[in-house]
Every structure is written in C-alpha cells, then in structure tokens.
Design goal:
about 230 residues, mainly alpha, Rossmann fold, Helicase, Ruva Protein, domain 3, two-stranded parallel ribbon, globular
C-alpha cells in the first residue's frame, strides 16, 4: 500500500540574501512572517524551529507613488530594518552614462562572470567590536534617541533598536574610514538612515509638510556633541 506523507520544502526565506521588491504589496501575513526571521534568525513551522544562516539579510523596496493594492508595514517590522535609504532620480550625467553602458552591452551585467567572494564573518565581527566607542558617544546616542521621543512634532519616537543601530553602524563607518575609533560626525552622518523609519510624525507635522529628516536635523542641532 502506498504511503502518503507531507514533505517540508524550504521556501525563499531560507536564502541568505532576500530582495523583497515592493514589500508593501505583500499581504500583512507575509510581512508578519518576516518578523521572526529578521529578529531571531529562525522560522517556526508547526512548532519546529528552523535556524537560518547567521548571514541572513533582507533588502526591501517600497514604491512611494502608487498605494493601490498595498499594505502599510507595521512599525515593529520597520524597526527591524537597520537602514531606510531614500533613492531619487539620477542626474542627467549619470543617466547618460547608464544609457551608454546599455547601448554598448555592458548593462545589465553578467553575474555569472563575477568572482565568488568569501570572508571570515567571525573575524570581521571581532574587528568591528574592537573599534573604540567612548562613553561620551554612548551618552550622545542615548540623548538623540531620547529626544526623538520628546520632540513636539513626533507622535512616537525611536525604540532602543535605533540606538543599537547607531552604535553598530558608527563602528562600521569608522572602520571603513580607516579609524579605530568612532567620532561624533559618524553618528551625525548615520542619523537619518538609522532613525527616519523609526519615528512617526504627528498630524500637525504632516499637515505642515515637515519630514522626519527635518525633525532629526532639529534634534541634532539642539543636541550638542560630547566633549
């Protein structure tokens, strides 16, 4: 007698690198399913935990001009993203260069010809951990986060994850810049990217055309550098 049984087949979430194009078109249930994967690096199915690769990484896009058939991402999911970057149209010179590359067959690139890259994740994490972050800068980061919760144009401010993001990326930026210590300008340069999606403006700000970046600039201006 033939036996029938269920077979578990891993879906796209078990990839190391996920690109979620126009993630706000995914239904809320799908978006919620990403919460555990992005925070815990695991997926629970029928009570069984499936551990994801430590290098699990999600990059997502949103279309800001077309909202029909979209779902707003919940705040707790937005908070899981390290950065929120805004991408505008390229200037004429850049678009001309792109069109020239397409005409010459350079674009789109042939990814099969790219060399395989490998790196020691543990060694890289240790190198980041060794970047000096002075106590005064920790106080500075904490005060910025605190001010996002008090600003008159903010309905609710950043969670502690915003401070963790600034701490981590500040070290990474210092490392990329060839320094073994973080400076206040590192924190200032990363503030928009790490916090713009972690604060929600109140109705007064929205009606006045004020953006999250304007609020963050105001906070940075009023929060003095340590020293």
């Amino acid at each position: 007698m033939a036996q029938q049984e269920f077979k578990f087949i891993k879906g796209p979430v078990f990839s190391d690198f996920i690109v979620a194009d126009e993630i706000n078109r995914a239904p809320p249930r799908t978006q919620s399913a990403l919460l555990e994967a992005m925070e815990e690096r695991q997926v629970t199915i029928e009570g069984t935990r499936h551990i994801l690769n430590p290098d699990f990484f999600v990059m997502a896009t949103q279309n800001p001009q077309e909202y029909e058939g979209t779902f707003q991402l919940p705040e707790v999911q937005m908070d899981r993203f390290l950065f929120k970057l805004t991408v505008s149209h390229a200037d004429v010179k850049a678009e001309t260069s792109m069109l020239k590359s397409i005409a010459e067959g350079v674009l789109p690139p042939d990814f099969t010809k790219l060399d395989t890259m490998a790196f020691d994740r543990a060694a890289l994490d240790l190198e980041i951990q060794q970047i000096t972050l002075d106590q005064s800068l920790l106080d500075y980061i904490a005060e910025i986060i605190n001010q996002t919760r008090k600003h008159p144009y903010v309905l609710y401010g950043s969670s502690v994850r915003g401070g963790i993001a600034l701490t981590l990326t500040g070290r990474i930026l210092a490392l990329l810049d060839g320094r073994d210590f973080v400076i206040p300008d590192d924190i200032k340069a990363l503030c928009h990217h790490t916090l713009r999606h972690r604060i929600k403006l109140n109705s007064e700000a929205q009606l006045s055309g004020i953006k999250a970046e304007d609020v963050l600039d105001d906070i940075l201006q009023k929060t003095g550098f340590p020293g």
